[in-house]
Task: structure prediction
Amino acid sequence: MSARAVFRLTKQVTSTLSNAGSRQASFGTRSFASLPDSIARSAQSEAFPNEYPGQNYDFNWTLNADGVTPLKKSAFRITKPLELKISGLAPLKKTPLKVNASAAQSTMLEAGGPDLDFDSYDEISQRCKDLLSLSNTLYCPEGHMPTTTTSVRVITNSQTLAPELLAYLDRAPKRDSTGCSITAYVLEDEEMNNFAAYAIEEVGEGGDITSVAAVVCTGKNVKVEQ
Result:
């Protein structure tokens, strides 16, 4: 085979390989672009489906751990005024809210004390959690007890109390949804008698044991002082 023939054959093979590579790249591009829009969007999605303001899976799991399941799929974690607005409520114009809770503290019962056994407390507490789970919307202000770093979460169905509680609590750095040192269950219901009590429990294992408190307040018109 002459040198010229070899040159022509080499040129032909190179051209064929180049065209094949171009076609392969072109096919790859067309096959990706031809995916249905729904699949393309799913591949790029970073949020869980069906999440929206008031329906957050991570936060709902923490509420489940607290014994409350937002069955109406409307539960707002509120750590700042903007989140209160997103829930549909208006922040108080004057903050922080000063509260004198000394009178309420003197009348609040402790579970296991002489005036309230654990069985009675558990019964009322469970009833409160069940009714909160059935509420149309749950408002959950979170923060620190004033002048402390004790974390507090309030789970309530009251549109009146939520802005007051947010104004009362010190703002805390927002972290992933977890349980707090104090969890308060506050239910306003025409059929519930006035009740205010708390229980202290120890949670954890081994040397990592901490004390947490659960507060239950129910009534027709619960006040922030409670």
The first strand starts at residue 75 and ends at 78. The chain is about 35% helix and 20% strand. Helices lie at 3-33, 37-44, 57-65, 81-86, 102-107, 118-133, 161-168.
